[in-house]
Design goal:
2 copies of one chain form a homodimer.
Chain A lengths: L1 E4 L3 E6 L4 E7 L1 H9 L5 E8 L4 H10 L1 E8 L5 E6 L6 E7 L19 E4 L4 H8 L7 E4 L3 H6 L1 H9 L3 E5 H8 L4 H10 L4 E5 L5 E5 L2 E5 L13 H16 L4 H20 L11 H15 L2
Parallel strand pairs in A: 1-4, 1-8, 2-6, 4-5, 8-9, 9-10, 10-11
Antiparallel strand pairs in A: 2-3, 6-7, 11-12, 12-13
Helix pairs in contact in A: 1-8, 3-5, 6-7, 8-9, 9-10
């Protein structure tokens, strides 16, 4: 199985065409649901007493919730606004609420997970949590600007403790103080992780392993309405695909990246979580085929 | 044969590591020399009396110069400075000099050219010049912000008069007033051109034809020293490859785009023109193979 540790949020998302108020979001939600198309996925996450029943039902339908906790207090709330081109998001509010005091632990039933995804959580928590698993075959983490700015040494330690890092291009540059993405990736691999995946939004991603670079384009879309969660969906689908194949050779990892691109493309086509909810496996397979045809020359 | 109409410049290029003063540059120089690896290429261009003999010799070695003119006055001079990430260039001076009054004509010997590349010249000049060719099989033009801002209607007319447009992403957005690159391309195709190639620098390019989208990544490079001329090299190699194959079906055009990516990657590895000068054909073929291997999954 796959375990995903990350945030569940109530998101307020302001796009040029629509404002969503307190809708189900968060890195673990997007990553977990995307992964769930490929493998049984368990969640380690916390919400507050205000977490709506209908959102709980969505999670319960798709995910194993033995690691899901309801704490006294309010659910993590994020409020952000996109510019008219959807390329820049301004954060208006980040209310950590129950997330601020969450002490994650790995439920007994998850300890045998061979695949573990650590979202953009406190890097120290991520590095501690991964030790609680007995038999990890492939672990992957994300990180964000906030941790790079405030806990850079912990971020580097966390990177040392996982097999793969998935990170945005701007954050990779910020973390490594390099401009060139190959140099960024080399630095992270020197810190001790084997694989680095740099996400470039609409420009796709770069996978690095040893001396291998695998650049891949994003699936081209004409109508994008809400980029929220695309990167988390990418990461979830990528590790979910690997867990399903029970294989982490380079060829499988490349295919996993392609599946990441595909789930990322579903995510941005609809508002909030709608793009990745209730997909049919055949829809995903069809888009993967379409992707393969698109890039062939 | 292929005819290239465009600027020859003396470039002053300020990069973080080196300043080049009045070195050989210009869109036609980069496009022409890149194309010359694939096909005999004739130049329609003008320089001033100050144009150094050593630069003339470089052009004469690689290109047919029956359309090359020396006018009274000084050669076009461009002066620009890159930021430390090499991603933004600030123009310090643009001295048109002899370029300002140039009246291009097609020499008798070029009129039978089946392939024609019109650089980022005055769009009216481009649209007039293309009519002077007797038997064009594939014509392609570029344009820049200056013409979009000052002669937008002429740019649209020019686009109608060619088979393909090659244009930077930011300029495509500016010209079409669309944010999404697919929408940008559709608008340009609606204006009457069959193919659109949107260049995205380090993120590669997108080729559009009818309902087909062909995204391709840039060749990944760790050491980039000077991005000058990469886009022109891309365009020159692309149309040079087509001219060599004497074929413009979609599959050949896709391969032409890959060759464009490859020559663009050579261009940025060294300063000024050095990256694309004196390449061996085997070096180009080797990098194409490397590219194919890099993107395979």
């Amino acid at each position: 199985m796959l375990t995903v540790f990350g945030s569940i949020a109530l998101d307020t998302i302001r796009t040029p065409t629509k404002v969503l108020k307190r809708v189900l979001g968060g890195a673990a939600t997007f990553a977990g649901i995307s992964a769930s198309y490929f493998i049984k996925t368990g969640l380690i996450a916390v919400v507050g007493k205000d977490f709506p029943k209908k959102y709980y039902n969505i999670l319960a339908k798709n995910l194993d919730l033995r690691g899901f906790k309801v704490d006294n207090g309010k659910t993590f709330h994020y409020d952000g606004s996109y510019d008219k081109t959807l390329s820049t998001r301004t954060t208006l509010k980040t209310e950590l609420n129950v997330l601020g005091n969450f002490k994650p632990t790995v439920p007994e039933e998850y300890r045998k997970s061979e695949y573990v995804y650590l979202g953009n959580n406190d890097p120290k928590q991520n590095a501690e949590l991964i030790k609680e698993f007995d038999n990890v075959k492939f672990s992957m983490c994300d990180t964000i600007e906030f941790w790079i700015a405030h806990k850079k040494l912990s971020v580097i330690k966390m990177i040392k403790s996982v097999d793969a890092v998935v990170i945005n291009d701007e954050e990779a540059k910020l973390l490594t103080k390099e401009h060139n993405l190959i140099k960024c990736a080399k630095k992270m691999m020197n810190w001790g992780t084997k694989y680095v995946v740099i996400k470039k939004g609409e420009h796709g991603s770069l996978l690095f392993y040893d001396d291998v670079i695998f650049p891949s384009v994003a699936f081209s879309l004409e109508d994008i309405v809400d980029p929220t969660g695309a990167g988390d969906s990418f990461a979830g689908a990528m590790i979910g695909y690997l867990a399903n194949k029970r294989n982490t050779n380079l060829s499988t990892i490349k295919k996993a990246v392609i599946h990441g691109n595909v789930l990322g493309s579903f995510a941005v086509e609809k508002f909030g979580l709608d793009g990745i909810l209730n997909l049919k496996k055949s829809q995903i397979e069809k888009r993967v085929k379409h992707y393969e045809k698109m890039v062939r020359f």
